[in-house]
Amino acid sequence: MGTTRGGWIYGSQRPSYRARLPAFLVLNDPLSEAQVKRAFGLENLKNDHSNWMTLTSVEADELSSHLMASPAWQASEFNTGWEIRPPTEAEWRAALAAGNMRIHAGTTERLADAPAANYRGAMMDGRPRPNEWQGPSALQRAALAVHPSRPHITALTSVPIDRPLPNVVVRLVMAPVRTGAPRRVPEATDRWGNLRSELLWTTVLGIVPSFTIPVLRGMGDYAVEGWLNLLVGGLCAGFFTGAFWRPRRPVLGYDDVEPDSSLSDSQ
How does strand 140-146 pair with strand 108-110? Predict the structure, then answer.
């Protein structure tokens, strides 16, 4: 999950971590109107097999609860220890990577996770991330948007839980209920380690070239007299390079974190 790229512009996609998921079942396609009507016993109505874009996250949760209360579910082997719900991001990406589901260009799929600014606090066993926000974000759910012409490109976004939006769809999974204390990506970061790294690369990529170039061009006097300008220019150049490139960050392994751990990492 996430990226190991070190540039600042990738900060919302870090820390990169490995999620460990149990086996689960996923719908091949997002829910259609026909499937939802069939679930509620409305097959006598006109059935539309296209993706249903008016289904909100609240209604998807209600549908999941309705299915789990049905006699067929109660009589099945899944009625204990399993649940029906929209997928988490980890489940969605795992199913896509395994080729077990189809995605549709230009659509956005609702997830079971709460929205987040980055992967700090993410559930490393793929269980739904709880909503710990206050304010407008408390009424949002995470979602994955698929590029209109290049379906292999996706972006994490958020959608309101109680309002339908154009081209926003939902699919369901049957997954084991995760129990016990979760392993979460550490919230804390190694600020001192990150600061040392930033000072090093700002010096190497910004300040040193800023002073070296005038000297190599025979302007050694300016390197002394205009040191303040060169220092500021070097700092600006160093900060600019930091937006796009810094050394790759390590991937946080599932076994690197203990349940309810406050471990820090340099991500």
Answer: antiparallel
Task: Provide the b/e sequence for 153-172 (b: ≥16 CB within 10 Å).
Answer: ebebebbbbeeeeeebbbbb
- What tokens does 3 get? 């990226």
DSSP character string of 5-49 = --SGGGGGG-S-B-------EE-SSPPBHHHHHHHTT-TTSPP--
Q: What ranges in 87-226 are assigned the alpha helix state H?
A: 89-97, 191-202, 208-216, 220-225
- Show me where the domains of the chain are located: 18-176, 191-256
What's phi and psi for 17, nearest 5 deg? -145, 160
Rounded CA separation 34/41 (Å) = 10
pLDDT tens-digit map of 150-188 = 989 999 999 999 999 999 999 999 999 999 999 999 988
Which regions of 139-238 does DSSP assign to beta strands (E)? Answer: 140-146, 154-160, 168-169, 173-176
> Which tens digit of pLDDT belongs to each residue from 231-243?
999 999 999 999 9
Read off the DSSP letter of residue 129. P
Task: Read off the pLDDT of residues 46-90 as tens digits, 9 standing for 90 and up.
Answer: 666 667 788 999 999 999 999 999 999 999 999 899 999 999 999
What's the CATH fold of domain 18-176? paralog of FGE (formylglycine-generating enzyme) (3.90.1580)
